[in-house]
Amino acid sequence: MNELHYALIGLGALILIFVLVILIRTFTFKPKDKVNILTDDEPFDKEASVNSLKEMVKCKTVSYYDSELEDPREFEKFVNLLPNLFPNVHKVCTLTKMPGRGLLYLWKGKETGPASVMMSHYDVVPANEEFWEKPAFDGIIEEGVLWGRGTLDTKATLNGVLSSAEELIKRGFTPNNDVYFAFSGTEEINGKDAPTIVDYFEQNNIEIGLVIDEGGAVVEGVFPGVSKPCGLIGIAEKGFLNVEYKIKSQGGHASAPKPNSPIVSLSKAVLKVEENPFKYHLTKPVNEMFDTLGRHSNFLYRMIFANLWLFKGVLNGIAKKSGGEMNALLRTTVAFTQATGSDAPNVIPPEAKVVSNIRINPLDTIDTVIAGLKERIDNDKIEITDFLGVNPSRISETNCEEFKKVERAVASTWKGTLVSPYLMVQCSDSRHYGRVSDKVYRFSAMALTTEERASIHGNNERIKIENIHKAVEFYIRVLKQC
């Protein structure tokens, strides 16, 4: 045999070994041990839980960045309603009304270990009722559904927290350690209620362990190759940033335009950013999600997730091409949302602007994003200004008992659900709690369809009665472990 023949044999052997490694890793990439299910039934007053949420929805607690548009009476109405809806809670728990609209309840525990915090917010975004099928604030129940702004975001979780505590207090239950119920009335406007409550914990040297806020949910069809429902628990959230891009010119009549008018220059800048996305990152939340749910995928996707060392580029390419949720998990995203130019159709604008909303990957920062935008655009005439931004949150631990408590409660409430960490691409008040805890988890205790998720901040927001009940069951199971 000549040398070429030996070389081909050697190459074939290497290829065979390479393929075998991929296949072995794929076949051994099996589901992890099942979560221990809490088998106890958790009876409670289901009718009361629905009625309490219905009454909450009737309070028009709409928050605005312009406080002149708000109706303080509606917020007062909501707060004054709670003692009537949850009398046991108000007999046993201590309520501290914080500066602003924050409400902080303390349920004293038997011991002095780290406290748990159950978060929610009771302010809501405006509703353009012209486009709703049912009134947004009447609390109408029809065909097993409660209609109303705030049913999903997020009075349902606040109702779940207080309804579960109401039931457990009625049973004579006391938590092992202190439990706080922390409710904000300014979450939708990035207000000060949540940071003020965190300040209170810091100033009073209160040790915080488990924190649960809104976030992921039980969803289907969101992970490639997985057919089972997935209970997604956010262990971090992306940062956000609004950026304005502005350019000036001499203006003039549209009949004699010069090259690179303001709108053309801005359009070129937008295309440069769109065509050069930010760097792909495999962060801890995403890695753990892939490692958990990827084991339940079909063979093709299981091969990809079991061998990301090889297929990372493939996954990156799929994400860039398709966009959407998978792409948002892997990189900082830029969405151009606003544009202004001339006031007249026949006038070159003396100044033009576009605005983008950016969601920042946990391995990026506001500073690196701004630098990346300037590098991509490479036009000194375009003024780039950032406003209203926060860096990504602290990443929470998953190899701990606190995460397992939430995981058990999810798996026990929605049996057959795959429970996984994930990266939340939206923002919530829970980001402030990274100052006091590395065990902050984001889970909205509901099973939501794509249509239901789209109604959050949209038209026809509504919740199934079953989801109201499930939220109470979930929090009962969580609180019994606190």
Please describe what this structure looks like:
The protein is an alpha+beta fold and 482 residues long. The protein is 38% helix and 22% strand. The chain contains 15 helices and 17 strands. The protein has helices spanning 3-27, 46-57, 72-85, 87-92, 155-170, 193-203, 262-275, 284-293, 299-306, 308-322, 324-330, 366-377, 401-413, 450-455, 465-479; strands spanning 94-97, 103-107, 115-121, 141-142, 145-147, 179-184, 208-219, 230-237, 239-248, 252-253, 333-340, 347-348, 351-360, 383-390, 418-424, 440-447, 462-464. The strands form four sheets. Strands 1, 2, 3, 6, 7, 8, 15 and 16 form an eight-stranded mixed sheet that branches. Strand 4 (141-142) and strand 5 form a beta hairpin. Helix 2 packs across helix 15. It starts with a helix and ends with a helix. The model has no long low-confidence stretch (mean pLDDT 94).
What is the element layout, followed by pairings?
Elements: H1 3-27, H2 46-57, H3 72-85, H4 87-92, E1 94-97, E2 103-107, E3 115-121, E4 141-142, E5 145-147, H5 155-170, E6 179-184, H6 193-203, E7 208-219, E8 230-237, E9 239-248, E10 252-253, H7 262-275, H8 284-293, H9 299-306, H10 308-322, H11 324-330, E11 333-340, E12 347-348, E13 351-360, H12 366-377, E14 383-390, H13 401-413, E15 418-424, E16 440-447, H14 450-455, E17 462-464, H15 465-479
